[in-house]
Prior knowledge:
Layout: E1 2-8, E2 11-19, H1 22-25, E3 29-36, E4 39-47, E5 61-67, E6 80-88, E7 97-100, E8 103-106, H2 110-124, E9 138-145, E10 147-152, E11 155-159, E12 165-173, E13 176-185, E14 191-195, E15 202-209, E16 212-220, E17 225-230, E18 233-238, E19 247-252, E20 256-261, H3 266-286, E21 292-294, H4 299-310, E22 316-320, H5 330-340, E23 347-353, H6 361-370, E24 382-387, E25 394-400, E26 403-409, E27 421-426, H7 428-445, E28 446-450
Parallel strand pairs: 2-9, 22-23, 23-24
Antiparallel strand pairs: 1-2, 1-4, 3-4, 5-6, 6-9, 7-8, 10-11, 11-14, 12-13, 12-15, 15-16, 17-20, 18-19, 21-27, 22-25, 24-28, 25-26, 26-27
Amino acid sequence: MIRNQVTYGEDIILEIYHKGFDETIGSRELSFAEVVEGKKLQFTETLVDKEEVLFEESSYKKEEGLLKTGAKMNPYNQQATASMIHYYSLEKPASLFELSTNMYDLSISIEAFEEINKFVEKYTGLKIEKFPEYYGDIFIYKSFELRMTNIEKYKLVIENPPSNSTIIVKFKNEELLVSTQIIEISEATQNLEVLCGKEFTNFDLEIYQKNELVYQSEEVSFMRRLDMRLSTSRTVDVPVEVLAAPIQLFVENEPHEMAIGDATESFQKILSNSFYKINKKLRDANSQNTTTFIQPDEGQIAYDLILQEVKKNSDELWIFDPHFTDESSRTKMIDWLRVFTESPASSINVVFHSNDRKLDIEQVQGEINQDRILRMRDSLNLTLWQTKRNIHDRFIFTLKNNEFSGITIGTSFNSLENHYYCITPLNHKAVEIILGDLKHFLTTDSKHKEV
């Protein structure tokens, strides 16, 4: 058998055995290690004789069964079904857990525990984060692998099916069961063709030997067509005077589409594209947005979040900041205009309020005309909007093919490095409503100038 052991500090925190690989593997000595919270976390893989292994002594409970392909505790994932024997242990590793008043709790930080979970999954294949109570237990696995090919829309081919077996195939079109085929295999055969008679998108497969289930796989599908939207990006170093210099902007270009495989009927493509966008809007509308809290001297975090919006491949980019043209921040204003005008958006709009302490729209244009970088651009695609009344909140919005996104910023662009504030993403519906209302406001309470 092959033995996988994961140790943390002095404890064996997980032990896994794989049957049936002795002849194909030969000798085996693997080891990988990391340090987590000052202790060595190590994975080792070796060949052992089954006579050396005793499980019952440390176990209070044993369970046996079959794990279908893709099951969380199947180390072979989608590659094979796994017969599993699981020996439970009541004594959990002290390096991970501590027992207090008949309850286990973590003896390490949650961050360290998550790091160990990822390490275990990486080297053993087990999604142990779903079952942390299995630490300290022992597993024995034996795989059952089956190869299948889909030659035509109505036919499935199973390579080298086991003799003296019963095979049940349930053909489905998405979730609709369209056909069930039961085949008895008495002798070894190289390729078994299973005819569905109807077009199918996926299938479930079970194999029985001596009335025992030995293989199970659900919702197996083959890629008949692959639609891809490929986009490239260009890197722009924006020279700035007082911001972090230089600001590097990765600008997305317009994606192009390509397809591999069978042609998709036009109405199917229309439905697929349409409902992809609709579902995206529904997900956005119900998403739990994550607010980022920015502290003084964390301006770079704010820059990164702002640049994520600016670089999007959009038709329209809107910037709202009532203090954008403050007299005391002319240099920062120009720096940000250099950044905004590198956006791929065909329409870039900056909205600000003007009074005695702020530049008006003509003065801003004068600053642009004098700037050594901006005046060299062939086209800025920039429109300046000056409002009579103050729009207090700061926003960045993008619009592309009726898809909206954006963020709200708790301070002005000229003070990102100095204040405590939040940056919060806004979902599609919120941006659609807010931007629509603000555009209406601009028609009655502003003047604008294309630069």
